[in-house]
Amino acid sequence: MIKGLIAYFRENKKRMVLSVIGVAIGVFSLTLMLGISGAMERRVEKSLGKMGALLLVVIPGEVKNLGGRTLQLSFYPTLTVKDAEAIQQKCPDVKAVTPYKEVSPNVHYGGKFISAKVIGVWPTFTEVTGFKTSCGRFLTWSDERDMAQVAVIGPKVAKELFGNGCPVGKTVYLFNAPYKVVGVMEKRGTDLSGEDLDSRIYVPLSSAMKRLSNVTYLDGILVIPQGKESLKPAIEEIESLLLKRHGKKDFTVSRYEDVANTQKQAMEIFSKLSLTVTAVAFGVGALGILAVMTLSVYERLVEIGVKRAFGARKRDIFLQFLVESALLSLAGGTAGAFVSLGIVAGISTVAGWGTYVPVKGAALALILTLIIGIVAGIYPALRAVSFEPREILKEI
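and the corresponding structure tokens:
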């Protein structure tokens, strides 16, 4: 059976290649779309932490998505630490919160100045985000209570200021205030908005607000709900609570990925276009295989007649053409899958998402390819068994 297909392929190379191009493009498009989507999901999980897309953010002011870009249309200095404490205590669907305040001091050590974002947070930051330290420790409630001048730095900050090795115990200067390094964060790369998470410095929130910026308001509150089913109730509870506390809607509660992910709409458009191309390509591929296999039946009538004359049953002939059609489709699909796997792996590596191979996506595409090959081979197989051997052999 396979030998016969190979022999026919050698005699009709161009025709056979053209017949599977559609299937190959279909598999390529589907695998590429699923692969890039999967790689992006991994990036979301990596940048948002172990709780992924469950992370919520409370922002003081109005935030809207305009043309695929998230803009803060207004800002109110009304969000406070008391609000964060109230959310933690009075919202049953909330698991943990961490208020944050960004400051912009000069960051330096030994005469070397670097660019780094300094953020004041609670010790619960690691619970909310899932971020961990690679050496040393994170901030403690004792640090927060004492407004301690301690810092947990990102790996890029550590390397730029102190070189290789763990710099725990050394001092980094924020403005001219000395902050003792107590830990270094794990490497995380960039977040959804393109910000480098490894160039951050975390200090106690109390220290950031009172020592470094001398303000009483927050830049936001990160919130993690009890679970996926608690996401919507948690948003409603937070909005209701803050509305009562503030007396007006001077805040926005959103999913963090909606606020940070300016690439989301582009990915959705890419997915829709990929699915359209996939559907069209699979349709063209099915028609191509149908045409080639039907033509193959008429070109191999003698072979069919001889096999039937020597005892081959109609079922055998039917299965032969059905299997050949499936194998032909699978060959095109395999070629498309291998090309797309290579491209996805390359894009993931270059984009810094980590090497990602969409094996499940490729397997799904190949299963669809096999189904298309079988469906496209039904008519040619039925035509092959519709001829009687005596009629075929008379024409020889």
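(Above: one complete record from the training split.) DSSP finds 14 helices and 14 strands in the chain.
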